[in-house]
Design brief:
By secondary structure, this protein is mainly alpha-helical. It contains nine helices and no strands. The chain has one domain.
Length: 214
């Protein structure tokens, strides 16, 4: 796979209007998220990955443009982070209502975030590996992607732990365990499930964007 194919596909879809729409949606969500968040420090902690991703995408947009599918997935993941940052993951209103309707006291919005933490990076990693021809077979590539996503999820749990220890008062809001002793393990399980489902459900549409003339 050459970068020329990806560039052609991106250009055919209209890079200009797509980029503008992407950026407008991103900053509209970011602005909403930043207005009177539940906790300012927790907001920064939760939204930081989205801001880092934006900078990375801005730097690589010309030299390594991604497919529209991948860009859209990254935007959805960023919005998930921004919603979680605004309310804190344990207090997203919709998921409070869902929990109440199910007779539960736990807000499970954080599981949506961890599912996306596996689902979206799986496609990002898949695109990089295919375009750089890193792996010779799809089977080993998929195995590597799943391991990568699970490792990334585990590393993020470590970051949460270290940040919580350092921040003190913000620890509970940032970790969002809500008293669930298996929270860390279930977070990684959701990321693993997300990665597997992404490969199963999006491989074909992703290939069509990577190889538009194939």
């Amino acid at each position: 796979m050459t970068d020329q194919h990806a560039n052609q596909h991106f250009n055919q879809l209209g890079a200009s209007w797509f980029c503008v729409a992407w950026v407008v949606i991103f900053f509209a969500a970011l602005t909403w998220s930043a207005i009177n968040p539940k906790d300012d420090f927790t907001w920064w902690l939760e939204v930081a990955p989205a801001l880092i991703a934006f900078v990375a995408l801005a730097i690589t947009q010309k030299s390594f443009p991604l497919t529209t599918l991948t860009y859209c997935l990254i935007l959805i993941h960023a919005i998930i982070l921004m919603v979680g940052g605004h309310y804190t993951y344990a207090e997203v209103p919709l998921f409070n209502e869902i929990a109440e309707s199910m007779g539960s006291t736990r807000n499970n919005y954080d599981k949506v975030g961890h599912f996306a933490q596996g689902f979206v990076p799986a496609i990002v990693a898949r695109e990089i590996l295919l375009r750089r021809s890193v792996m010779k077979t799809r089977g080993w590539m998929n195995f590597f992607i799943i391991c990568f996503c699970l490792g990334f999820s585990a590393f993020y749990e470590l970051i949460e732990w270290w940040t919580a220890l350092a921040s003190g008062e913000a620890a509970e809001a940032f970790l969002g365990t809500q008293g669930y002793i298996w929270d860390t393990q279930s977070d990684m399980a959701f990321a693993l499930t997300g990665a597997i489902l992404a490969l199963l459900l999006l491989a074909k549409p992703h290939d069509k964007q990577l190889y538009p003339r194939a």
